[in-house]
């Protein structure tokens, strides 16, 4: 299958160059599946031109902002929109970048041939000026301290290991983008590409691909050492933010890059014709960078008109009676009888049936389960799409595969051993159609059979309460949720966060502006099997918990204090004896309402 590339171009008042850049993208030997163009409130006729031309170019996806958010904000918007087009790779380019015809194909070739096990996170083109010389402003630097193995693996495909790259032309692994988040929109004017590319590459592979050539049509040939004047404030502030708040560099790397920054600043001062302006920028930048933090992307981008409400592909209100997909994942340890009961309860017995079922088989399964899957697909009253994954990937990656196969914008989740009540979708779908991006419900826990009720979980139903508590616990019961596919994709999908993939996804959705909702009524019966309480604790889940909390911190979702609190409370819960955990869970969670204690996320995940 061809590697799916989605290109992102950010533009502001360079219509002629934009036309040339888009024409070059359309002419690629490996053409992008979609081209997202972010217009940063241009005033030179670009907006009107794009509105007309987009009608003739079905691959173009134009996003028009009300104010100029710079490259940082523009690429944050563009990447979020690009993820809704299900890319394997996202290609980021400036509007004055003209790629040669094979530029994309060479980047893709390097990505696919480097290693099937560990794909590069970032691939950078060779950037030349109009006369063919390598452009000093955009030359990727070789990775300091690259190991011999790293250099050899890169050289084998004609590449060089790098640690950072420019937004002029880089191609990023979409899964790493989903995992590491979007550019920080508040890095206006400076260091946005440095912070973001190093964040993607840290712990991963970054490559310079000389065979991929793009022309950067800047007005002059030069580097970033030119006298910045008043703009020096942004350089200093953003570097201070990066060295003190970003996790894109290790401590050792911060020392190395910090020293290089000081040397460059010294050269800038030495060459400046107005050092007083630079001194003011230096002092103000240090003060602001050390005493403040970058604002959340939604706070930066909302004034420019970027919100889920304004997206063309996700209208707020949908006509009633929307078709929807039912997404179920099964694996080798699932009971065929339980799967049959879950399937029938969510399809045949529903008053409002799904338009299709996407049944993901996560790895090989025993003959009995395989036979049941075939029987369900054959006898289902609605179409069944059987997605087979050769090797077991785990629940998160399996659901991401299934989500890609869903044909409808609205997707309902269901576990392979739970039981939906007959009016579940009658009650949940209207909430989505009325404007919510995700709606869950309460659930009833049962033992041997549905009538053997052992507990009940009632989630918070007030949207503001959901937004408040989600940094501390999962306010959604995963097997009960129905969501908009575009909202999930914009948040990066499930990714591979073992045992915590749903909580990470829902938190990123809500943090990114998705509209949450819950129904208190239990609409799913949740099977509590043997070992349920053991699975809620232990060192394995503790590792997942700590990884989740680090991810929240890296993404800026939690503060340092909230991070410490979560590690102490949630991490401690994983280590208490199983008998204590069972008693606490029954007393504080499974039989309480929406204001229950925060120590345990209300997950619906079984092991997969």
Automatic annotation (TrEMBL):
Gene3D superfamilies: Spore Coat Polysaccharide Biosynthesis Protein SpsA, Chain A (3.90.550.10). Coiled coil: none annotated. It holds the Pfam family Glycos_transf_2. InterPro entries: Glyco_trans_2-like, Glycosyltransf_2, Nucleotide-diphossugar_trans. It comes from the Bacteria. Residues 8-115, 327-476 form the Glycosyltransferase 2-like domain. Keywords: Glycosyltransferase, Transferase. One of its GO terms (molecular function) is glycosyltransferase activity. The keyword Transferase applies. Belongs to the glycosyltransferase 2 family. PANTHER family: GLYCOSYLTRANSFERASE, GLYCOSYLTRANSFERASE EPSE-RELATED. This is Glycosyltransferase. The lineage of its organism: Bacteria, Bacillati, Actinomycetota, Actinomycetes, Propionibacteriales.
């Amino acid at each position: 299958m061809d590697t799916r590339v989605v290109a992102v171009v950010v533009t502001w008042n360079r219509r002629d160059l934009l036309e040339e850049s888009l024409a070059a993208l359309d002419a690629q030997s490996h053409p992008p599946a979609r081209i997202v163009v972010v217009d940063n409130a241009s005033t030179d006729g670009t907006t009107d031109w794009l509105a007309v031309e987009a009608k003739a170019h079905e691959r173009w996806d134009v996003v028009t902002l009300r104010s100029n958010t710079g490259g940082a904000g523009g690429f944050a918007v563009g990447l979020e929109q690009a993820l809704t087009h299900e890319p394997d790779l996202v290609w980021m380019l400036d509007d004055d970048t003209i790629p040669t015809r094979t530029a994309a194909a060479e980047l893709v070739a390097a990505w696919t041939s480097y290693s099937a096990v560990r794909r590069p996170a970032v691939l950078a083109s060779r950037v030349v000026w109009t006369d063919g010389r390598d452009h000093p402003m955009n030359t990727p630097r070789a990775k300091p301290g690259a190991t011999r193995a790293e250099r050899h693996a890169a050289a084998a495909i004609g590449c060089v290991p790098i640690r950072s790259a420019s937004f002029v032309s880089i191609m990023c692994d979409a899964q790493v983008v989903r995992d590491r988040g979007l550019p920080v929109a508040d890095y206006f004017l400076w260091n946005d590409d440095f912070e973001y590319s190093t964040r993607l590459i840290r712990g991963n592979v970054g490559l310079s691909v000389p065979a991929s050539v793009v022309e950067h049509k800047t007005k002059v040939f030069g580097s970033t050492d030119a006298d910045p004047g008043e703009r020096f404030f942004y350089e200093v502030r953003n570097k201070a933010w990066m060295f003190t708040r970003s996790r894109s560099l290790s401590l050792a790397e911060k020392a190395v890059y910090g020293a290089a920054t000081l040397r460059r600043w010294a050269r800038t001062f030495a060459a400046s014709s107005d050092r007083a302006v630079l001194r003011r920028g230096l002092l103000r930048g240090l003060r602001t960078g050390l005493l403040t933090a970058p604002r959340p992307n939604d706070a930066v981008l909302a004034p420019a008109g970027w919100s889920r409400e304004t997206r063309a592909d996700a209208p707020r209100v949908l006509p009633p009676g929307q078709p929807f997909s039912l997404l179920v994942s099964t694996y080798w340890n699932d009971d065929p009888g339980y799967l049959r009961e879950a399937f029938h309860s969510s399809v045949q017995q529903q008053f409002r049936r799904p338009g299709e079922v996407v049944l993901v088989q996560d790895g090989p399964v025993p003959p009995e389960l395989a036979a049941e899957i075939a029987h369900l697909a054959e006898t289902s009253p609605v179409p069944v799409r059987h997605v087979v994954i050769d090797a077991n990937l785990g629940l998160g990656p399996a659901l991401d595969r299934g989500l890609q196969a869903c044909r409808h914008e609205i997707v309902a989740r269901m576990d392979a051993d739970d039981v939906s009540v007959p009016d579940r979708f009658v009650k949940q779908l209207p909430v989505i159609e009325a404007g919510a991006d995700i709606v869950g419900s309460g659930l009833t826990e049962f033992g041997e059979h549905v009538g053997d009720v052992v507990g009940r979980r009632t989630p918070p139903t007030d949207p503001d309460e959901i937004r408040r508590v989600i940094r501390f616990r999962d306010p959604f019961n995963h097997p009960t949720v129905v969501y908009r596919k575009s909202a999930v994709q914009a948040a990066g999908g499930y990714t591979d966060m073992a045992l915590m993939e749903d909580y990470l996804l829902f938190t990123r959705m809500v943090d990114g502006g998705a509209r949450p909702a819950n129904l208190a009524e239990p609409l799913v019966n949740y099977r509590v099997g043997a070992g349920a309480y053991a699975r809620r604790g232990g060192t394995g889940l503790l590792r997942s918990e700590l990884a989740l909390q680090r991810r929240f911190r890296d993404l800026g979702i939690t503060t340092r204090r909230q991070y410490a609190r979560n590690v102490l409370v949630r991490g401690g819960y994983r280590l208490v004896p199983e008998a204590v955990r069972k008693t606490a869970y029954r007393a504080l969670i499974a039989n309480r309402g929406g204001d229950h204690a925060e120590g345990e996320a209300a997950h619906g995940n079984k092991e997969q």
